[in-house]
């Protein structure tokens, strides 16, 4: 299976980068063809410009500036997101990726006013997230990243398939032991992906 792994942490020596490397390695060990998309390393431009918005619904004109990313998404059979959660949301670069790449004609199309997915070729979805907040604080805030992964993205890909959702909460108070345990959990989950 060809797996697209989206990564959005700007610091190469961070725990988030270690999670990304572990994800890539474990998927490859499991025999998958892995396409690692490190948005910061690739200098992805997350800004949906005025020009982008003007052609937003005009497929294929809307993909002109992001065609390589669109091609990678269209080739994916699995999708894994590895990202920190900042202010109970995705980093701007990842949000911008969804705004600029998951376009009409690419991830969905409108048919008689109804949204129809164009991502049914993706068979599996997973997320590896780190939160500064505790699980309770994330719950009280509504945990938007979890809902985006388990509801919005899942619905666009396949509403009936299970989603692998892994989260290390309370990074503000983590220890070497909690980080190592979560890294092991990611390793196991990605080898079973």
In short:
The protein has 193 residues and is an alpha/beta fold. The protein has helices spanning 15-29, 50-54, 67-75, 92-101, 135-140, 144-157, 176-191; strands at residues 2-7, 33-38, 78-85, 108-111, 114-117, 124-131, 163-168. It has one domain: Flavodoxin domain (Rossmann fold, 3-Layer(aba) Sandwich).
Keywords for this structure?
alpha/beta, Rossmann fold, 193 residues, five-stranded parallel sheet, 7 strands, two-stranded antiparallel ribbon, 7 helices
Structure description:
The chain is α/β, with parallel strands linked by helices. The protein has a single domain, classed as Rossmann fold. The chain is 39% helix and 22% strand. The strands form 2 sheets. Strands 2-1-3-6-7 form a 5-stranded parallel beta sheet, with helices on both faces. β4 and β5 form a beta hairpin. The radius of gyration is 17 Å and the shape is globular. The mean pLDDT is 96.
Which descriptor suits the 3D outline? globular
**Residue windows where pLDDT falls under 50 for at least 5 positions:** none
SSE string = EHEHHEHEEEHHEH
Radius of gyration: 17 Å
Neighbour order of strands in the largest sheet: 2-1-3-6-7
Measured between the Cα atoms of the first and last residue, the distance is: 10 Å
Number of strands: 7
Indicate the percent of residues in helices.
25-40%
Residue share in β-strands: 15-25%
Broad structural category: alpha/beta
Largest sheet: 5 strands, parallel
User: How many domains would you count in the coordinates?
Assistant: 1
Average residue-wise pLDDT: 96
What top-tier CATH class fits best?
Answer: Alpha Beta
- CATH architecture assignment name: 3-Layer(aba) Sandwich
In the CATH hierarchy, the third-tier topology is known as Rossmann fold
Query: What is the assigned CATH homologous superfamily?
Result: Flavodoxin domain
Number of helices: 7
């Amino acid at each position: 299976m060809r797996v697209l792994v989206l990564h959005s942490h700007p610091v190469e020596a961070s725990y988030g980068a270690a999670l990304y490397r572990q994800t890539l390695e474990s998927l490859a060990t499991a025999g998958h063809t892995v396409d690692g998309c490190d948005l910061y390393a690739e200098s992805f431009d997350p800004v949906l410009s005025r020009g982008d918005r003007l052609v937003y619904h005009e497929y294929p004109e809307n993909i002109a500036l992001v065609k390589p990313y669109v091609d990678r998404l269209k080739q994916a059979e699995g999708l894994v997101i590895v990202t920190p959660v900042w202010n109970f949301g995705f980093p701007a670069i990842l949000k911008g990726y969804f705004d600029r790449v998951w376009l009409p004609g690419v991830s969905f199309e409108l048919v008689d006013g109804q949204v129809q997915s164009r991502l049914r070729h993706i068979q599996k979805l997973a997320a590896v997230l780190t939160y500064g907040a505790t699980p309770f604080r994330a719950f009280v805030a509504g945990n938007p990243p979890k809902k985006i992964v388990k509801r919005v993205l899942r619905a666009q890909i396949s509403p009936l398939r299970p989603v692998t959702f892994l989260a290390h909460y309370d990074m503000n108070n983590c220890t070497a032991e909690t980080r190592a345990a979560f890294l092991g959990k990611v390793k196991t989950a990605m080898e079973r992906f």
